[in-house]
């Protein structure tokens, strides 16, 4: 076969893609008919496809390209590390400089006594580590019965069998025999969709107390940990009411339940602090990290754990690890990414400039006839599409049908915005500038106008 390059016609690339490439979370037959969009290059916040179209990437890849595309420093560091030491493992009492430097740096950045890092290749792997780590922790402390991990419906913690079990996406549980035993799910703090007549504050408290009820019902001696994203990302950028997190922290403290904050999206500046746990003012015992750790330039994840957990786990052998745990090239790239985040004060830019600017512009979208609420936190934004703002009604047709139309109108207007059901979400690169936020919101508004016209034409603007 001759070389496959950017210069091939798009149709040929699409044909080869559908013949040989199986895509994640995709109906293969449907995609084969439509043809995948071929992304060829990117710079800053802008992607380019094989047809020469450019898009403002309001999803930062997949929530991960925090420092933006095209940072040559990361390429330089990766090339240098590949020449010096492309790989060595950390299993057999060996280590290397990138793993040492990155774990020390993460211990410095992480709050409280989270001073120890177990590396993985991804967020899913890191959460698999967490399942084994918290169960092993309690077993080593003489409480092997404490093995249940409580999570939330509509949470996303990854797609491996373990992390997919932690997640609360029922359509994922339906395939492959998930969840594994001893994972328990409580309801999410999603006021817009599930709050009924309660105020957000009442609802936040009620949902947090489901954790207490679950612990009481299952037995304190059976529950190992509670895991949650500070802000649910893939579930639709669900920002809990203000009453939620303080109550969760109180309950974890009262029953001595380990708190795992899945910071895979919220970590590394997304919410305007280094970690979402700081924004929500919680004290996790473990934080899951990936995505923004390397700004997506290399696959790497990990678990940052407390002194106490590291002490206990370190008192015996932890029979766990990945060939690529602490991979030297990925670790060197992550370290360079952290240097850029810190030296360029990108988190300060989020907190002081970009997030307030986005919040103001984004809120304005709530005036659109199709939009019921428009909220943001840091550089994550969400809007609920609805046929009736007052009753927060869902659409009469298939859930997600209107969201899908809106996503297609976004593409047509050179904007990448994702839909989760009938909710539209963004999570742009943290380096986005105010004038780029103006472009983002202007394109989103056009897409909403076109969606509104389209669903009226199709008769979809009806409450369920
Ligand atoms: C993406 C994600 C994961 C899984 O990370 P992968 O690198 O895709 O395995 C886990 N938790 C959260 C909150 C995520 O958003």
TrEMBL record:
<dbReference type="InterPro" id="IPR015421">
    <property type="entry name" value="PyrdxlP-dep_Trfase_major"/>
</dbReference>
<comment type="similarity">
    <text>Belongs to the class-III pyridoxal-phosphate-dependent aminotransferase family.</text>
</comment>
<dbReference type="GO" id="GO:0008483">
    <property type="term" value="F:transaminase activity"/>
</dbReference>
<dbReference type="GO" id="GO:0030170">
    <property type="term" value="F:pyridoxal phosphate binding"/>
</dbReference>
<protein>
    <submittedName>
        <fullName>Putrescine aminotransferase</fullName>
    </submittedName>
</protein>
<dbReference type="InterPro" id="IPR005814">
    <property type="entry name" value="Aminotrans_3"/>
</dbReference>
<keyword id="KW-0663">Pyridoxal phosphate</keyword>
<dbReference type="InterPro" id="IPR015424">
    <property type="entry name" value="PyrdxlP-dep_Trfase"/>
</dbReference>
<dbReference type="InterPro" id="IPR049704">
    <property type="entry name" value="Aminotrans_3_PPA_site"/>
</dbReference>
<keyword id="KW-0032">Aminotransferase</keyword>
<dbReference type="Pfam" id="PF00202">
    <property type="entry name" value="Aminotran_3"/>
</dbReference>
<keyword id="KW-0808">Transferase</keyword>
<dbReference type="InterPro" id="IPR015422">
    <property type="entry name" value="PyrdxlP-dep_Trfase_small"/>
</dbReference>
């Amino acid at each position: 076969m001759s070389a496959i390059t950017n210069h091939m016609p798009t149709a040929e690339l699409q044909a080869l893609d559908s013949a040989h490439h199986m895509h994640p979370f995709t109906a293969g037959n449907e995609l084969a008919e439509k043809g995948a969009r071929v992304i060829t290059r990117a710079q800053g916040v802008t992607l380019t496809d094989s047809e020469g179209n450019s898009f403002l990437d309001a999803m930062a890849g997949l929530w991960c390209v925090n420092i933006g595309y095209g940072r040559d420093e990361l390429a330089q560091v990766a090339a240098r590390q590949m020449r010096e030491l492309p790989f060595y493992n950390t299993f057999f009492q060996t280590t290397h400089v990138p793993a040492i430097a990155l774990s020390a740096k993460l211990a410095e950045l992480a709050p409280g006594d989270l001073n120890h890092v177990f590396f993985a290749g991804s967020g899913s792997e890191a959460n698999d580590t967490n399942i084994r780590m918290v169960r092993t922790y309690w077993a080593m402390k003489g409480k092997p019965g404490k093995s249940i991990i409580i999570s939330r419906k509509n949470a996303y913690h990854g797609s491996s069998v373990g992390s997919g079990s932690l997640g609360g996406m029922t359509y994922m549980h339906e395939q492959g025999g998930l969840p594994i035993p001893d994972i328990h799910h409580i309801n999410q703090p999603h006021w817009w969709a599930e709050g009924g007549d309660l105020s957000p504050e009442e609802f936040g408290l009620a949902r947090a107390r489901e954790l207490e009820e679950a612990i009481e019902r299952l037995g304190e001696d059976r529950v190992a940990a509670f895991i949650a994203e500070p802000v649910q990302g893939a579930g639709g950028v669900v920002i809990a009411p203000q009453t939620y997190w303080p109550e969760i922290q109180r309950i974890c403290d009262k029953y001595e339940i380990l708190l795992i904050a899945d910071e895979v999206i919220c970590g590394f500046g997304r919410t305007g602090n280094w970690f979402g746990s700081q924004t929500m003012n919680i004290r996790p015992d473990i934080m899951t990290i990936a995505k923004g750790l390397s700004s997506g330039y290399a696959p790497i994840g990990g678990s940052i754990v407390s002194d106490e957990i590291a002490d206990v786990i370190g008192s015996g052998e932890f029979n766990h690890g990945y060939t690529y745990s602490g991979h030297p090239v990925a670790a060197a790239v992550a370290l360079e990414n952290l240097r850029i985040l810190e030296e360029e004060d990108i988190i300060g830019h989020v907190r002081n400039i970009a997030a307030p600017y986005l919040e103001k512009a984004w809120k304005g979208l709530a005036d659109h006839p199709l939009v019921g609420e428009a909220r943001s936190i840091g550089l994550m934004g969400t809007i609920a599409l609805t046929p009736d703002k007052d009753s927060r009604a869902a659409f009469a047709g298939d859930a997600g049908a209107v969201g899908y139309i809106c996503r297609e109108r976004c593409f047509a207007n050179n904007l990448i915005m994702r839909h989760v059901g009938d909710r539209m979400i963004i999570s742009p690169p943290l380096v986005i500038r105010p004038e780029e936020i103006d472009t983002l919101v202007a394109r989103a508004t056009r897409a909403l106008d076109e969606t509104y016209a389209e669903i009226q034409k199709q008769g979809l603007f009806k409450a369920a």
